[in-house]
Design goal:
The radius of gyration is 24 Å and the shape is globular. Helices cover 35% and strands 13% of the residues. The protein contains 22 helices and 17 strands. α10 runs parallel beside α11 and α18 packs across α19. With 607 residues, it is of the alpha/beta class. The mean pLDDT is 93. The strands form five sheets. The chain has a six-stranded mixed beta sheet with strand order 2-1-3-4-5-6. A four-stranded parallel beta sheet has the order 13-14-15-16. The protein starts with 11 loop residues before the first helix and ends in a 7-residue tail after the last helix.
């Protein structure tokens, strides 16, 4: 591996030429600067790379967790790297400045590991661009022993095929334990041999549970089983939080209440791949909140999970935490609530809970379609919840819907407008002395994207023109007072679908798109659909065809090599239930035998 230690000179006059220079300066409160290992150990250097800009990456809880774990070891250090914005990248390329880590300002080539988190398919070109900006070949087979090991984790690893051309080692599932096993192996090999053969290391690493090495795939009939942290209550969580010097997307303390989801929304990849559900004890959460408030100075705490109101002890937690934080002038916020779980007790204990907004995701406008996607909430649930919220003083509500879902009709789109209209009426009916002074309803409509390990993984996506027509239809239907309508760019959703279900051949299209100038694709002002369409064509594929193809149930899937505990037969059965508009009970009401309990040995009651 490389022993290069190239310190990057970052002139002040260069920083004065870019927007938000604090993105590149580091030295934040609670940042860790580690230069040597504990006695008797060799220091392994890990660069955690988030393939997006600083404000997005610093909002990611997983970065903070792994940063704390790795830096807590005596034999390893972790530093942060983010994608530069276009102004900074232009100056770096003009002056020959390689991409560098914030803590040491060392170029990435100086590290033993470069670890990317793959959160979103449209960030993939940023991975290639960050490697190239570092002077490191993006294609794995072009990187010999002198280059760092490039690994990737995150939710998108459930289908590693499109990125297998570029990544040496994938980590499936949760990283708290497996990252230590990888570092243990590397540290041992580093002590045993001054010059580590990358191929030898990768071969040994491929034997670690949850690790997939593309050049050493598992044998026929074998799969790579994702890793989970079974005792989530005891799982490490940083109590000295990194505190940025500039505003970020989620500029607050984030408490992770639980992992997994008891629901089975048939479009939701996270709801399946993050199973099983594991909760943290309220007292542990209160202790973490207290420590983080002291170490960061933040004045807001977000109670976070895939579905916060499904936390079984939420009323107890908020009743205890809210007054304690109120004394410290710290607000609580409650994202990701379900309309059928928002209780009178929760609303009643909310005097110290931030009234800036509540977020709900009805997903569909009619009960038929909500049943088809197994949402499990009714219109009565949503209207009851809206009335509770308005009477408790909330005046801002975000409603998330999805268009293009399998079996959707225009009646389902009309239902979205009807539901919003009824919610506006409930605000007007709330007593003036109790309701907020004004109402703001933000309605967002994402386009359905078929994703691996869901019952809809075989479905076709609506073509771009159809999605745009549906967006325009809703835009007209939602022209009403108090309501703002947002939607996701249909062409971006088409690319997301094409990559999400892609095989290794999509990796070639990805490479060609990056060579053609594609980067920062998740930012609408930089997304270039024509570049991507041309790249797919040059790779012998059709972007629209990949997104809009219905896959046969008997076809071999690129992600069949991965085992996330979800039985394919269960997914097929759930797809059939969707077309019958039939509900499946949530995990607490009855086990549907999805396979996770059997795969990971969890207690059914925990799900």
């Amino acid at each position: 591996m490389s022993t290069e230690n190239f310190k990057v000179d970052l002139p002040e006059e260069l920083l004065l030429q870019v927007a938000k220079p604090a993105r590149y300066t580091g030295n934040e409160w609670n940042a860790v600067h580690k230069h040597e290992a504990a006695p008797g150990a060799a220091l392994t250097r890990f660069a955690f790379c988030f393939p997006d800009i600083y404000e997005v990456g610093m909002s990611h809880v997983g970065l903070r967790i792994l940063y704390d774990i790795i830096n807590g070891r005596g034999d390893a250090s972790c530093e942060r790297v983010f994608a530069p914005w276009t102004d900074m990248e232009r100056l770096m390329r003009e002056r020959g400045i390689p991409l560098f880590a914030l803590e040491s300002r060392d170029a990435l080539a100086a590290f033993d590991f470069i670890g990317f988190t793959l959160q979103y398919e449209l960030s993939y070109t940023n991975v290639l661009n960050m490697l190239d900006l570092s002077g490191i070949p993006p294609v794995a087979e072009e990187r010999g022993d002198r280059w760092p090991v490039v690994l990737a984790g995150g939710p998108c690893v459930c289908n590693p095929a499109p990125m297998s051309k570029f990544i040496d080692l994938f980590v499936a599932g949760e990283g708290e334990e497996v990252i230590c096993e990888i570092l243990d192996l590397y540290g041992k090999m580093k002590i045993d041999s001054k010059d580590i053969s990358k191929r030898d290391f990768l071969h040994e690493a491929s034997k670690i549970g949850g690790v997939y090495v593309p050049i050493f795939p598992p044998g026929r009939g074998h799969t790579v089983k994702k890793r989970i942290v079974k005792d989530f209550n005891a799982a490490p969580f940083p109590e000295r939080g990194l505190t940025p010097n500039t505003e970020i997307i989620h500029d607050r303390i984030i408490l992770e209440l639980f992992r997994g989801c008891i629901r089975g929304c048939r479009f939701c990849q996270a709801g399946y791949t993050y199973r099983p559900v594991r909760e943290r004890d309220p007292q542990r959460l209160i202790a973490q909140a207290t420590a983080l408030v002291c170490s960061t100075g933040y004045d807001e705490i977000s109670l976070s999970s895939l579905s916060t109101s499904d936390y079984t002890q939420l009323d107890e937690l908020t009743a205890s935490l809210a007054p304690q934080m109120d004394e410290k002038h710290v607000n609580l916020s409650l994202p990701s609530l379900r309309a059928d779980s928002f209780t009178t007790d929760l609303a009643g204990s909310a005097s110290a809970i931030r009234k800036s907004g509540l977020t709900f995701a009805p997903e569909a406008g009619t009960q038929r379609l909500r049943d088809a996607i197994n949402k499990g909430v009714t219109e009565e649930d949503m209207l009851r919840t809206a009335a509770l919220a308005f009477n408790a003083g909330w005046g801002s509500v975000k409603l998330y819907f999805m268009i293009g879902l399998p079996t959707e009709t225009m009646e389902d789109l009309d239902g979205i407008a009807d539901l919003v209209r009824k919610i506006v009426a409930l605000y007007r009916q709330a007593p003036r002395e109790r309701r907020a002074r004004d109402l703001h309803i933000n309605v967002s409509a994402a386009s359905f994207v078929p994703k691996p390990f869901t019952p809809f993984q075989w479905e076709a996506q609506d073509d771009v023109d159809t999605l745009i027509n549906k967006q325009n239809y809703l835009k007209n239907a939602l022209k009403m007072k108090y309501v703002k309508f947002n939607w996701h760019e249909a062409r971006e959703s088409a690319l997301e679908a094409a990559i999400a279900r892609g095989g290794r051949d999509v990796g070639e299209a990805l490479y060609l798109a990056w060579r053609g100038g594609a980067k920062l694709d998740g930012w609408s002002e930089h997304f270039r659909y024509d570049v991507w369409a041309d790249a797919f064509d040059a790779a012998g594929l059709s972007l629209a065809g990949c997104a809009g193809r219905r896959i046969g149930l008997d076809e071999q899937l690129p992600w069949d090599i991965m085992d996330y505990g979800i039985d394919k037969g269960f997914l097929i059965a759930e797809r059939e239930r969707a077309y019958a508009n039939s509900l499946t009970a949530n995990c607490r009401d009855g086990c549907a035998v999805c396979g996770v309990a059997q795969a990971f040995g969890c207690e059914l009651s925990a799900c």
